[in-house]
Amino acid sequence: MNQSSSSGRAWLVLGGTLIAQLVLGSIYTWSLFNQPLVSEFGWPLGKVALTFAFTTVFLAIGASCSGWLERKIGIRKSLIGSAILLALGLALADQAESLTTLYLTAGVMVGFANGVGYMMTLTNMIRWMPERKGLISGLSISAYGLGSFVFKYINVALLAHFGLDGSFTYWGLIVALCLLVASPMLSSAPALEAKQGVTGYSLREALSKPQAWLIFLVLFTTCMGGLYSISIATDVGLRLVHLTRPEAVEAVSIMALANIAGRLILGPGSDRVGRKPVIAFALILMLLGVSTLLFVPLTKVVFLLAMGAITFSFGGCLTVYPALVGDYFGVKNVTQIYGLIYQGFGLSALTGAVIGLVGGDMQTTFFAIVGLCVASLIIMLAIRAPAKLPVLARATTPA
Questions:
Q1: What confidence category does residue 394 fall into, taking pLDDT thresholds of 50, 70 and 90?
Q2: Phi-psi label, residue 389: left if phi above 0, alpha if psi -120 to 50, beta otherwise
Q3: How far, in Å, are 51, 97, 166, 272, 356 from residue 45 at the CA level?
């Protein structure tokens, strides 16, 4: 494939990637379903909210499997499989009459399918345009964040029309249809050749470096702050800030916009000012947001500003970590390396939920996040890139 043809294909792949990321990001509207499920079945709110923790755990597991699936059956078949599994999981969640069934369907099945599609399309796009890692991460993950804004209106409409008898099924069908539309636009990035001069690490070599584990800890911190806040946002607005139901739903939209803004600003910005300063700034912002929720009397404005700061930081950081991993360990094996580091995403959601359940309130979890933010800020200021390995790199023909 000549350079002009390869460039044209890259932009087509970007289009398919953005469609996939947009609909997969709808998972962040989960908090809209918490209260309807509590009202319908009488389950404790904390146990219903735990569904989202299972979703994110298996999202991370799916992400770690995405590289293997792409190599075995290809990116298009993998995405089609994800679409089918996600739609089936949500359709079965419509029939759930126990928390266990809800965890297995909306948690395990939907989370795994979402993770495969998310990580595979994101890291494939980074390999297509390795010289624009920050921009590509920013655009792709911004589309993922935009999904929560768009599907907030879709899922509210579904709940208003169908209640819990059909909303999950139609949500899954919409997502699956869009993924099927996106799949023909995708193709795996050109393979890497040594003569191109790009350096890289194997997965085993990367995991032998302390930098991989330090990045894991920092990612764990920002994800715990963001995911826990997102999972309880509607309920905090209703119970502690005394918002009306429409105001609490609008708070989800404002948080989604802050999330998207962080992704659009911090990802491309890291190409200009560097990954470390951007992540350090985001950690400070998250520390301020969480501290506000802990120590400042919550009015509607204060609540929205604090949640906006947290979700801006969380969303923005997620665009920078893939680029940082690519910078530190090369792009050849970025799917496998970042896929494992990304396990901090799922682990953080489960940890936040468990701390909240054991501690009995959100304050315990937020105090843990404050401590982790301080530790992660120190790490980010001190971390240095590992020594580069021999050349691996970029090909002129697709894999």
A1: very low
A2: beta
A3: 10, 15, 21, 43, 12
Domain ranges within the chain, ordered by starting residue:
3-382
Question: What's the half-sphere exposure (Cβ side, CA atoms, 13 Å) at 28?
Answer: 33
Rounded distance between C-alpha atoms, residue 249 and residue 236, angstroms: 11
Show the tokens assigned to 354: 């468990």
What is residue 196's predicted lDDT score, i.e. its pLDDT?
A: 47
Here the tokens at position 348 are 């953080």
End-to-end CA distance of the chain: 11
Average pLDDT score, the chain: 86
Q: Is 391 helix (H, G, I), strand (E, B) or coil?
A: strand
CA 317 to each of CA 75, 236, 252, 303: distance values in angstroms, whole numbers, following the listed order: 26, 24, 19, 21
Closest to 189 in 3D by CA, of 143, 144, 136, 142: 136
Tokens for 7, please give them.
Answer: 């460039």
Contact 119, 335 (CB under 8 A): yes
- In one-letter notation, the amino acid at residue 198 is V
Rounded Cα distance, 42 and 36, in Å: 10
The DSSP call for residue 159 is H
pLDDT of 7: 67
DSSP code at position 333: T
What is the rounded (10 degree) CA torsion for 318, 323, 325, 327? Answer: -160
Q: What is the pLDDT of residue 5?
A: 58
Q: Token digits for 117?
A: 């599609």
The band of 227, judged by pLDDT with boundaries at 50, 70 and 90, is confident
Long-range contacts of residues 94-100, Cβ cutoff 8 Å, at least 24 apart:
94/164, 94/165, 94/166, 94/167, 94/168, 94/169, 97/41, 99/43, 99/47, 99/48, 99/50, 99/51
For the entire predicted model, the pTM comes to 0.78
Query: Residue 304 to residues 24, 140, 288, 292: CA-CA distances in angstroms?
Result: 25, 25, 13, 11
Q: Which CATH architecture has domain 3-382?
A: Up-down Bundle (1.20)
CA distance 210 to 254: 37
Q: Where are the alpha helices (DSSP H) in 193-331?
A: 203-207, 210-239, 245-273, 275-295, 300-329
Separation of alpha carbons 13 and 52, rounded Å: 30
The residue-averaged pLDDT of 159-186 equals 95
